[in-house]
Structure formats: structure tokens, C-alpha cells
Amino acid sequence: MSPPPPSDTLIYAYLFSISVAITIVVYIFRGVGILSFIPGGILWLLILLSIATGIIYGVQKTKRY
Q1: 58 versus 65: which is more confidently predicted?
Q2: Which of 6, 8, 26, 34 is 20 to 30 A (C-alpha) from 61?
């Protein structure tokens, strides 16, 4: 039985899942036309934020304490 993950890993997991969820919602709503006023740069920023938080979460998850 493995010990529970440290709290900082859990925080990074939440940040990663929230950033991915927001990116997907904005991407879908922009494609449908509901959020068509949002520029493409904002969408790229959200995608890069999702990638960055995913990398940080992956590094934190594999770190040995």
C-alpha cells in the first residue's frame, strides 16, 4: 500500500486539471462561436499554461522525497 501523495503534488494535480478543463471549454466554445471574441493568443496562452502545469506536475510526481 503506497502512502498518500504529498500536498504539493496534489496542488499541482488540481492546477493541471483546472487549466486543462478551462482550455478545453474555451476551445470548444470559441469553435462553436459563443466565445468568438476571444483572440487566438489567449487560446495559445491557455494551451501553453496547460503544457507547463502538466510538465511541473509530472516532475513533482516523479520526485522522490
Answers
A1: 58
A2: 26
